[in-house]
Every structure is written in C-alpha cells, then in structure tokens.
Design brief:
It contains 11 helices and no strands. Helix 2 packs across helix 3. The chain is mostly helical. The longest helix has 40 residues. It has 2 domains: 92 residues, Rna Polymerase Sigma Factor, Chain: A (Orthogonal Bundle), CATH 1.10.1740.10; 145 residues, Winged helix-like DNA-binding domain superfamily/Winged helix DNA-binding domain (Arc Repressor Mutant, subunit A, Orthogonal Bundle), CATH 1.10.10.
Length: 262
C-alpha cells in the first residue's frame, strides 16, 4: 500500500557552480541594463542636438518631436548594441545611429518635391557638361545661365534639394549612403569598411580645399567647428540666408566631386 504521506520525487538541487554561474549572469545582466540606462540618460541631449542641426536645413515644416522620438529610438538601439571592448567611443557610435534614425524618418516623409528633383537633375547634368568643357568647376553664375535660372533661383533650388543629399554633408555621394558613417572613426566597422572610410575622408578633405574660399569656410565652421548657421553667419559677417546659400552650393560641388571617385 503506497505511503500517502510520501513526498513526490524532486530533482536534486543544481550544483554550487551552476548556482554561481546563474548568479554571475543575473548580476551581469543587471549591470548591463544599468550601463545602458546611464548611456541613454547621459546622451539624450545629443538627440536634440542632432535634430536641431538637421532641422535648420529643412525649409519645409517638420514635426520636431517626431524627429526627436526617432532619434531617441536610435540612441536606445545604440546603447543596447554598443560593445565597449571594441574601442569605439560611444559618442561617435551614438551620433551615427541617432543621425541615421532621424534621416530615415525624414526620408520616409519624402520632403523633396518631384519638381525639385527634376531641376536638380538638370543642374547636375549642366555642371558635368560645363566642367568637362571648361576644365574646372563652373561658377554659380555660369551654372545658372546654363540651366536658364537666375543665381537666386539656383541657390533656392539647391537649398530645397539638400533634403535629397541627406540634408547635410553626410549624403554627398548621391547614392543614399550615409557619408557620416564614412567620415566618423568607428572601430566597430569591418577592416574593408574602415579602409573605405579612410580613403573617402582623404578625398573629402581634398575636395573641401578646392572649394571657393567662402564656401570652404562655411563647411569648416559648420562641420569642423560645429557652429550652426547663425553662428557661422556671425563669424563671416554675412546674413544667415547667405550662409545657407553658400552651404547649399558647397554641398553640390562636393557631391559632384565625390561622385567621380571610383
């Protein structure tokens, strides 16, 4: 007759080493979560900085809060995927991911009207033809005349088309690639990608030195010194709208120069 008071068979407790391993994993998981939360909180201001820099290049209205939400998601993903053992600085890694998320959100909204795309194609074709005939980069006056625009109309079209060019220097190749991903030093990238980025940085630096003086100064102040349009205008003692024109013209010139790379 079975013993009704007998306890059911129980699995033996795990060995001490297994318990220690579980404890270490739980501790490591908790430490990782704390580390990620600290990164996110510390770098939240970076999201607004990126959005502000992008938004000042957009002439069409944009929902800043939506862009901040997209950038924040990019920051969270960066914190979760960041591997400090790879020697990449988190600020650089996060900047790339946040900017990419913001740009993806803008691309999804397709800010550039089709008419602007058409005008930009005409401008780029005329630029190539003039450069081939003249043996140098055409002046804006020459380019405007070739496409039947005034210089102001040319500037306006280039300013509107910056959205197509990744809204900044980060889209110069015209091939939807993130130029910032090449410019930034990211030790987490594969060796071939790092080599390509290094070569592109050299070509970009060379192309910048070939810009007209005022356009070169705008690019250096805006990207190297991290000044915004208003601050750049104050340094150069010109209007903010003039800085925007020079910036747009420089982006076109750099885009045309870098598309020549093999």
């Amino acid at each position: 007759m079975p013993d009704v008071n007998a306890q059911p068979d129980q699995a033996p407790p795990p060995p001490a080493e297994t318990l220690r391993a579980r404890a270490r994993k739980a501790y490591a998981d908790q430490a990782r979560e704390t580390f990620e939360e600290k990164l996110i909180l510390d770098y939240l201001p970076l999201v607004r900085h990126v959005v502000t820099r992008v938004a000042e290049n957009i002439h069409q209205p944009a929902d800043i809060e939506d862009l901040i939400s997209a950038g924040t998601i990019g920051l969270i993903k960066a914190a979760r995927e960041y591997d400090p053992s790879r020697k990449a600085e988190f600020k650089t890694y996060a900047y790339i991911r946040v900017r990419g998320a913001v740009i993806d959100e803008l691309r999804r909204r397709s800010f550039v009207p089709s008419a602007v795309h058409g005008k930009l194609r005409q401008i780029r074709a005329a630029y190539e033809q003039l450069a081939g005939r003249l043996g140098r980069a055409p002046a804006n006056e020459e380019l405007a005349e070739a496409v039947g625009m005034t210089v102001l109309e040319l500037y306006r079209t280039l300013e509107e088309s910056r959205n197509q060019h990744f809204l900044s220097i980060h889209g110069l190749t015209g091939q939807e690639s993130a130029m910032g991903d090449f410019i930034a030093s990211d030790e987490q990238a594969s060796p071939p990608t790092q080599a390509e980025r290094a070569e592109l940085r050299v070509q970009l630096a060379r192309a910048i030195t070939e810009l007209p003086e005022k356009e070169r100064l705008v690019i250096l102040l805006y990207y190297e010194r991290d000044l915004n349009m208003k601050e750049t205008a104050e340094v150069l003692k010109v209007t903010e709208s003039r800085v925007s024109q020079l910036h747009a013209s420089a982006i076109l010139r750099l885009s045309m120069k870098l598309q020549e790379r093999p």
